[in-house]
Amino acid sequence: MLNEQEYMKKWIALNQKMAEEHFTWGTAELEDDYEQYMSFHLYKMGRKQWNDIQEATKKIGHIVNKAYHEIFSSETLKSRLGIPAEAWDTLSILSRYFSYFSRLDLVVNHGDIKLIEVNSDTPTGYLETSTANRIICEDQGYSSPNHLESAIFKAWRKIEYEYQITSQDTVYFTSYGWHDEDRETVLFNMRNSGLARTRYIPLEEIIVSETGIYDGDGERIDYLYRLYPLEYLPDDKDPNGKNIGNLLLDHIANGRVKIINPPSAFMMQSKAVMGIIWELASQEGIFTEAEKNDIQQYFLPTFFSNEPFRGLNLPYVEKPIFGREGGGVVIFDRMRKVVDEDPEHWYSEWPKIYQEYKEMPDYTLDTWTGPYTGKLLVGSFLIGGEPSGLFLRVGEKITGNLSMFCGITVTED
């Protein structure tokens, strides 16, 4: 084990190497200090467990995609998603696959793998899983098992086909320009897209007019990859107070701009989907028996009320349907007393779902300040419908934006 001075020397060297390849957020900035985010600790996962997670990821993706098409065809099911009224018309745009860029958050306890949520709309963690993980592995003489770059390239070939993008079309990529993580995540996707013509445009530079959306040169934007949640748009106004967010939603709904991820990804980002899938699994004629078995194996009981947990006598979690980074999450014990609660109330206005609580396993990392034992969350990327890599984070019972990520490699059992 390295002493504190040796640890910091190595951390600084690795962080600099990562920064040269666009991963620049190895620390998390607080009000008056910095917290460690990048840990060069390397988790050595056995081949069987790796393969089990890949299989689970593929099967979960299939279930969610089938549920998407079921929800898409039912106005009743759509109405339960909690989608803002201003965005409702965007849900009429059918997509072949619910999301081309998504990440599943999994609790993995040996052979037990449970899905706690699907980040289908605007997932992050790409550079951690690709660039940073490769550098950590190489430093310790291992190879990275993740392959996001090739998966992104293949996903864009599917997108080109579905969206009918030609070599003459420019695909714009956007995020907040001032936000390093979002910007570099988007640029990573753009660099690996293999598209003939691309351009990055900061979100704040997009011009939204009555006829469509444009860049600063007056060029119309027909195709837009965005790392920006659609549920934020109803509140977006220009400096004069005009609601440009709703105007953009109207352009999306009417096909004046085609967005990637598609609106289906926003639709399936609602955690209400987990409750709907659990309900559909008890009905006949929707899922096959094999699919129902997969739901029992990989999904957690999820409801629109906490009442079922009276009879189940199980701890459970209350989640806002559009919460992110653990925002608004509350954990209850068997007696419905609060065990842990996220202090962020940003998402408190959203409707809630109630899901069986599955505790993440403990895992210990070496850090700046010595060993830290936290809860291990496994993020599994599903890109273009294919498992593409694992993103490990270690934090508190509620995984927030101050959890640390660590590297992963695969060893033979």
TrEMBL record:
Highest taxon listed in the record's lineage: Bacteria
Keyword annotations: ATP-binding, Ligase, Magnesium, Metal-binding, Nucleotide-binding
Pfam families noted in UniProt: GSP_synth
Protein name: Glutathionylspermidine synthase family protein
Annotated Glutathionylspermidine synthase pre-ATP-grasp-like domain residues: 16-408
